[in-house]
Amino acid sequence: MNRIERLLEFLNATPKDNFLRHALALEYLKINEDEKGKELFLEILNESPDYIGSYYHLAKLFEKLNDRESAINWYEKGMAAAKEAKDQHAYNELQGAYEDLIY
Predict the structure, then answer these.
(1) Whole domain around residue 52: which residue ranges?
(2) In sequence order, what are the residues at sequence separation of 6 or more whose Cβ sits closer than 8 angstroms to the Cβ of residue 36?
(3) Which residue from 67, 65, 70, 71 is spatially nearest to 97, judged by alpha carbons?
(4) Are 70 and 62 in contact (CB under 8 A)?
């Protein structure tokens, strides 16, 4: 059984587990299933805007898809969420990627 099948099996038992959904989204990105990854990241962040780790990956995916405006939007949302959560490390990582994109 491959990693995606295993993660899907775990998600059948706990469908709203953000850690599992995030891991599955990353696995989809590895095999260029970008749309499936994007859907999962959007689900996570729409349901759990405090799940800080997904902002970076979603914004990077939008960069890859040449959707600069959406990437900027998600970096900004992520920085706001990281600031709210007092997660300076995540904030700095998001800010660095954001500045690389806009400057």
Answers:
(1) 3-102
(2) 25, 28
(3) 71
(4) yes
* Number of domains present in the structure of the chain: 1
What lies within 8 Å, CB to CB, of 81 at 6+ separation is 49, 50, 52, 55
d(CA 66, CA 102): 13
Average pLDDT per 10 consecutive residues for the chain, totaling 103 residues:
94 97 98 98 98 98 98 98 98 98 95
Phi-psi map region of 9: left, alpha, beta (phi>0 left; psi -120 to 50 alpha): alpha
68 CB contacts (<8 Å, ≥6 apart)?
Answer: 62, 101
For residue 37, what are its two tokens? 């990854």
**Domain of 72: which CATH number?**
1.25.40.10
